[in-house]
Here is the input.
Amino acid sequence: MKLFITLVISAFLNMGMLYADSVKVVYDLTTGNINKIEKQLLNSVTAVAKYYAAEKKMLKVIVVISGDAYKYFIDDLDFSPYASDEDAVNAQKLFKPRLAELNDIYGVTFYMCSNGMKARKIDRDMLYKYVHADVMKSVYLIDAQNNGYAYMPIH
Here is the structure.
């Protein structure tokens, strides 16, 4: 019994060390500029994740989507308000696999502002499967910052 208690305490201490060695960031993505999204989100998150992995730290990333960025998170553009948006159509070929990679490989969580979706007539079923849209942008950002996430704007 003594050995069991020692093992349980040891496991909890080790789990605490894992969490102590993590860093958290929330990206406030509002830009529709393809170059900014590629450089400041896609390339940056990948590079930062690799850096912290080499430092043996876990990186937790949240991306909050609003403003002009909605169009880059629509799965089927043909049935969306962005069907004739050349930027969205051209960028989707590049962004779709890279955004999925951020979610699948690096564990990035994507949240979309539900108020902006309503204003733009975007239904949840139009989004990539990994994009969550339950509340407004402000709630996502407030919750993230109150949970210790560093704020990074991409405007």
User: Anything to note?
Assistant: Residues 4-10, 15-19 have pLDDT under 50 and may be disordered. The chain is about 50% helix and 15% strand. The two ends are 57 Å apart (CA to CA).
